[in-house]
Amino acid sequence: MSGLRHTEPLDVHLIAVRNGAAGPEVLLSRRAGNVCAARLWHLPSGHLDGPHEDVVTALVRETREETGVLVDPALVRAAVTVHHRSPGGGSRVGFFFEVRHWSGTPQVMEPAVCDAMDWFPLDVLPQPMVAYCRAGLDAYRAEARMAVHFQEPGDPIAYDPAADRLVLVADRGTDRAAPEGAVRDFTERAVGRITGWTDVSWAREGSRVWRAHGAEGGTWYVKIHQNDRFHRREVRALRTWAPSLGAAAPRLVAADPKLRAVVLTAVPGRPLYGAVLSPERERAVFRRIGALARRIHQASPPRPAPAGPGPALAKADRHLAGARPQLAPEDEDFVRELVQQARSLPPLEWVETHGDFQLRNILHADANDGDEADDFIAVIDFERSEPGPAVRDLVRLSDAWAGRPGLYSAFLAGYGRTLTGAEEARLVIDAVLDAVSGISFGASHGDPELVERGRRTLARLRAEHHAHSVQAGGSRKRAEPGRPSTAGQQAPRPH
Question: How many angstroms separate the CA atoms of 137 and 146, rounded?
Fold first, then answer.
């Protein structure tokens, strides 16, 4: 022990944030005159006046003195605390506070020590900038609550990526927030230093996904697949046909088969799962989903289907055994009837398919001007991608348009064609088999939502199948082509 006690000064920093045209912006001032770090950009900041002043009161005072705006103490939000040491060896503790509401317009109030003040996008910060201030903003962007920034002798006062000393302190209960060391090293070799990790894994999946925040402001996604098969499928898709989707799919930055890890570019938008849209907007979105499905299925020339019943039919008995406790006797009879009929269907051509084309894997970004014609649609998660009939990608999506023929019509309008009779029949059969598979998996893995969705789909398709059988037996009238039962309409009975 050195015997010396820390007696660091305390300072406060204002992170004033507003919404800009390209995203959140932060207010910065440029130091000037006979001061340390002259000509460098910095947050409005200052020291406490003395023991009588708390950190929030000091922030409100410094904000008024430096920018002229008034801040209500009740609207001050704690952002991040940084323990900093300068290249000269002196240390201090900085309290960074977020403020999003104030009175007045920021302007230079102390021209002797500040010659400029402006707003900058949070992900495009200016240079040169005080390294201490940049560390606080990087920690803030990474959603950290505490950080250490101990510079070494000889380090520049200005931020230099080659001498970035920021270390984030993990929050309590965030042991799973970052991947293991080997994955972190792999990611940083691919894209540079990462200042923050956010676990965004889907609750029911075995694969893990993190959002990685780069020191220079970039964002990537890092995924660890639950098995080698999923890793190979996703990497194959991202290397071969997914690039034809352009901005509507992530780009593969790096892959490591030993770690089963991939680094992907970020794609704008939020999953459509759970989104609430107006009926007009929803139809417009489904037209775009149909157009995206068409691009996927046209990414490579179609090819003849291989011989055999296909994996879904081959697994039918196993999935039925797992789902049986959740099924009524007539459910199992219905499934076995469709499995038998499926063996007489003509084979469908195979194309590239996403394999898990459903709303939680489809991203939607609103147009800036609110024009639905400019809405952006993209797709993620290619670990179940493999060649198969095109209707494979309609099976899980069809739950979204069940009983809503307008959405199905909008999808087909974007897709550019109706389904053939064989495709309609195959879609019903595959939807039934997928429902049974979901019930089996959900029951064994404690996922009640998956079980309920499968039972709902199975009950609906069985009722529609029964209604069509009665109609066909009485009038011999076939349902209108192009409207499968997954759209809430009567479908041709498989034969």
Answer: 12
Strands 77-85, 91-99: pairing is antiparallel
Give the residue extent of every domain in the chain. 10-169, 181-265, 270-487
Task: Compute the distance between CA of residue 438 and CA of residue 290 in angstroms, rounded to an integer.
Answer: 24
Domain covering 270-487 in this structure, CATH number: 3.90.1200.10
- Say whether domain 181-265 belongs to CATH 3.90.45.10: no
Arithmetic mean of pLDDT, 84-96 = 94
What does pTM read for this prediction?
0.64
Which residues have a Cβ under 8 Å from the Cβ of 62 and sit 6 or more positions away? 12, 14, 44, 45, 46
pLDDT at 205: 59
C-beta of residue 41 within 8 angstroms of C-beta of residue 29: yes
Under the banding of pLDDT at 50, 70 and 90, the label for residue 442 is: confident
The sign of the torsion formed by the CA atoms of 463, 464, 467, 472 equals negative
Q: Which amino acid is at 367?
A: A
CATH H-level, domain 10-169: superfamily: Nucleoside Triphosphate Pyrophosphohydrolase (3.90.79.10)
Q: Each residue of 101-125: pLDDT tens digit?
A: 999 999 999 999 999 999 999 888 9
